[in-house]
Write a structure and sequence with these properties.
Shape: elongated
Structural class: alpha/beta
CATH class of the largest domain: Alpha Beta
Radius of gyration: 25 Å
CATH topology of the largest domain: Leucine Aminopeptidase, subunit E, domain 1
Number of strands: 6
Helix content: 40-55%
Strand content: 5-15%
Largest sheet: 6 strands, mixed
Order of helices and strands: EEHHEEHEHEHHHHHHHHHH
Bound molecules: ligand AR6
């Protein structure tokens, strides 16, 4: 099952276990610890008092009292001391231990805050990367739905260089779209007036659609009956997906896990040749399969979608594919930075 990165208050997440970024006394504190104790009520504190504290990297399980989850897993993260003092290993151990204790208690879902990234000072982008990497490797051999609950947007800090590369790519593509549009309007009217009004674009596309029968690429032999045409139906999205998985020498599980897609959803797609996925799911599979831009567009078309230069989401996806960067979490960080919806979420 996938990782879902959500922006929320962890005390509101309905799942089997939520993880508390506690301190070694386990008697409550500020930040997420304070929020969890407040929402759970006094019962949680009374149970914690019996535990007698906890070391960094260790996990303790309690009931969740008034919280909508079944358990709270209390973990003490490392304090940031510059990064050369074993912080990374300790933080990884926090995630491993919490996941292990959740699996031992038959949890099917768990929600993590970004441990250590508040009062304990761990840089949020590094804390997020460690969370994603550790959880991803756990999920290779386990089935669990894992939420990473990000409280504030600064956890996603794509590098300035990547941000500016994507920004100029978006700018270029917008310019391209407008330039082609302006040129075609000039050709049509034989004038050289530059029409800069972007909102005319949509009217222009409509005109184009109305005139489609004259367009050579739209030509369909007149004699073909509807039945003939329907019988010539192309390979579907799921057929192409399964073919590409075989061609790439991947197993189904490797593919859907890399796509950050739920196993149940994958089974549905596998079992239904005409399954219509959402656009983000279709793109997530294209990324997992490391398809070229052309194949990605083909696969999307089979699901009824396109990549256009009229919206930022599509341009960002195109940017990553052209640069052969198929890391779904880096793509999601960039999408997040540009306020777009995330893949596989
Ligand atoms: N839901 C989700 N995330 C939250 C919430 C919330 N309700 N509140 C804060 N965060 P922190 P730490 C985020 O300081 O760094 C406590 O006093 C927050 O933005 O809670 O491990 C303990 O008792 C940050 O990204 O935990 C310890 O003394 C992340 O949760 C100490 O703080 C963790 O911030 C532990 O420090």
């Amino acid at each position: 099952m996938p990782i879902k990165i959500v922006r929320n208050d962890i005390t509101k997440i309905e799942c089997d276990a939520i993880v508390n970024a506690a301190n070694s006394s386990l008697l409550g504190g500020g930040g997420v610890d304070g929020a969890i104790h407040r929402a759970a009520g006094k019962g949680l504190l009374l149970e914690c008092m019996k535990l007698g504290g906890c070391k960094v990297g260790q996990a303790n399980l309690t009931k969740a009292y008034k919280l909508p989850s079944r358990f709270v897993i209390h973990i003490v993260g490392p304090k940031w001391k510059g990064g050369q003092n074993g912080e990374r290993e300790l933080l990884e151990s926090c995630y491993h231990e919490s996941l292990r204790i959740a699996a031992d208690n038959n949890c099917e879902s768990i929600a993590f805050p970004l441990i250590s990234s508040g009062v304990y000072g761990y840089p949020k982008d590094q804390a997020l990367k460690i969370a994603v990497d550790t959880i991803t490797s756990f999920l290779i051999d386990h089935d669990m739905l894992v939420y990473i609950v990000v409280f504030d947007k600064s956890a996603f800090q794509i590098s300035e260089k990547l941000f500016s590369d994507i920004t100029s790519y978006i700018d270029d593509k917008y310019v391209d779209t407008h330039f082609i549009f302006n040129r075609s309007r000039r050709d049509e009217y034989g004038e050289s007036t530059v029409l800069a009004e972007t909102q005319i674009l949509s009217d222009d596309f409509e005109t184009c659609e109305l005139q489609a029968p004259q367009c050579p690429t739209m030509g369909v032999p007149k004699a073909a009956s509807l039945a003939d045409m329907v019988n010539q139906i192309d390979e579907s999205f799921s057929q192409m997906l399964l073919r590409k998985i075989d061609e790439k020498g991947m197993t189904d599980a490797e593919c859907y896990k890399k796509a950050n897609v739920d196993r149940k959803l994958f089974s549905k797609i596998r079992g239904d040749a005409y399954y219509r996925p959402s656009k983000t799911t279709a793109i997530a599979f294209a990324i997992a399969l490391e398809l070229s831009l052309e194949d990605t567009k083909d696969m999307l078309m089979k699901a009824g979608f396109a990549l256009s230069h009229s919206n930022k989401f599509d341009i960002i996806i195109e940017y990553f594919i052209i640069n052969e960067n198929y890391n779904i979490f880096e793509i999601n960080e960039a999408l997040f930075a540009f306020d777009q919806s995330l893949l596989g979420v």
